[in-house]
Design a protein that fits this description.
With 440 residues, this protein is α+β, with helices and mostly antiparallel strands. Helices cover 23% and strands 24% of the residues. The protein is built from ten helices and 19 strands. The strands form five sheets. The protein has a seven-stranded mixed β-sheet, with no helix packed on it. A hairpin with a 2-residue loop joins strand 3 and strand 4. The chain is globular. The protein starts with 10 loop residues before the first strand and ends with a strand.
Length: 440
């Protein structure tokens, strides 16, 4: 990497919706990457570089330059880091996928990074990113080419974000140009239904996504919504705006119309709110019912299955969660300070009101929303070393790469994967496998 003629700034293009919880991955177009790569390839490896509370262990840095199918140089790599909480077990990693010949159709957006911590620079942190229409087109093209679970998950989520009001004409035009660049036809629902990887997509849905989410919606729910996405994209149908639930429960004048929910979950705690609102947001975005544990005004504690829709504050200062009780389809409002717990379930619902919980906040569950057992720790990162085993003796352990889906058999219970290629022949950045089964 060192010494190559590269521009000065990176363009982040890996989208928004897919739940990268344990491992972050960014695809970066080399419109501008010199300073970034110099930092990774020359600055960090000279020692365990530290930035206040972050440490970057040298033995976690991996970079590989290779020729992509179009004959151009690309880079794949990763940088491990230790944060301020001193988490034990495997080192979290930022995976990097850099290329300099991607077709970028629309002008990039410069956006502010939400960083509500004391070390935030005075002028904030800005990054150059794909605009929403370009992300939508890129994910649709990726879905057509490789038919992977994360692409289906992302495309449907992007379609659901009506609050962002994307220009579908721009999405389709960008999609056409990207497909032309990659040498593939513009996808339709018919071509996706005839895709040879469709059985693998169904089989890999749980394997590739379940470990990253508090609750995984069913494959059929997302696949059956895909025709609506293409009908809307190609202007065969229009989205019908759903009514808001708030006005149907309380008089509009009781609500504080100037109040908006904070963007990130950390803001709730700062305001003294302990209810798991981010988990409820996640369930709403995924059209999953929530098992809500609640104390009513008589002091009785019980659980109810709800469809979450919106969050408002009254003029009296009370936060209200507006929902529909799933069993009798009646609209209800719940005081947030009486919510004792919540769990996302696998029971899905068809929204009858506008889902407003995602408009101001994230649609992915944060790490705090996952339950972590204090006694179960991940295997620390290490470079695998050969171990002598008697051939054919003892059990074998099967691991699946969470990135490309390939399976590997090991004689030891070691999830570390060696360098390998994806089904498309590209070098795969996946280096940690997901345990599948034991063979005897």
């Amino acid at each position: 990497i060192q010494g190559r003629n590269l521009p000065e700034e990176v363009l982040l293009r890996d989208p928004i919706a897919s739940p990268k919880i344990w491992t972050s991955r960014f695809s970066i177009r080399l419109t501008s990457a010199a300073s970034f790569l110099r930092g990774c390839s020359t600055g960090l490896p000279r020692g365990s570089t530290r930035s206040r509370v972050l440490r970057f262990p040298v033995d976690t840095h991996r970079f590989e330059v290779y020729r992509n199918p179009r004959g151009k140089d690309s880079v794949q790599g990763r940088v491990g880091y230790r944060g301020p909480l001193g988490r034990q077990g495997s080192i979290p990693r930022i995976k990097l996928d850099l290329s300099n010949d991607e077709r970028v159709v629309l002008e990039a957006d410069r956006r502010e990074v939400h960083h509500p911590y004391s070390d935030r620079p005075g002028d904030g942190i800005q990054v150059l990113t794909y605009c929403f229409e370009e992300v939508f087109a890129e994910k649709t093209r990726a879905l057509a080419k490789r038919l992977r679970p994360r692409d289906l998950y992302d495309v449907v989520h992007l379609y659901r974000r009506s609050d962002l009001e994307p220009d579908r004409g721009l999405v389709v035009d960008t999609l056409r140009q990207k497909c032309e660049f990659k040498g593939i036809p513009v996808p339709t629902i018919a071509t996706l239904n005839a895709h040879p990887e469709l059985p693998a997509l169904r089989n890999d849905w749980e394997t590739m996504l379940a470990h990253q989410l508090p609750a995984l919606p069913s494959f059929d729910e997302f696949w059956n919504e895909l025709p609506q996405v293409f009908e809307w994209l190609f202007e065969q149908t229009e989205k019908v705006a759903a009514p808001a639930i708030g006005a149907s429960i309380r008089a509009a004048e009781e609500l504080d119309e100037t109040w908006h929910a904070p963007v990130m979950g950390s803001s709730w705690r700062r305001d003294g709110i302990t209810a798991p609102l981010e988990l409820i947001r996640f369930a709403a975005a995924n059209h999953l019912c929530v098992d809500l544990r609640y104390r009513d005004k008589q002091g009785r504690v019980g659980s109810r299955l709800i469809e979450p829709y919106s969050l408002h504050r009254t003029k009296a200062g009370d936060l209200l969660l507006h929902a529909v009780r799933h069993e009798d389809e009646e609209s209800r409002s719940y005081l947030v300070n009486r919510i004792l717990g919540a769990a996302a379930t696998k029971t899905s619902f068809v929204p009858r009101y506008a889902i407003e919980l995602t408009a101001s906040g994230p649609i992915n569950a944060p790490m705090s929303a996952r339950s972590v057992s204090p006694t179960k720790r991940s295997r620390p990162f290490r470079i695998s070393t050969p171990t002598r085993q008697r051939a054919g003796f003892g059990p074998s352990y099967v691991y699946r790469c969470g990135y490309c889906g390939k399976t590997f058999t090991r004689k030891n219970m070691d999830s570390t994967l060696n360098p390998h290629k994806t089904k498309d022949g590209w070098p795969c950045p996946g280096r940690t496998g997901i345990y599948v089964e034991t063979k005897y």
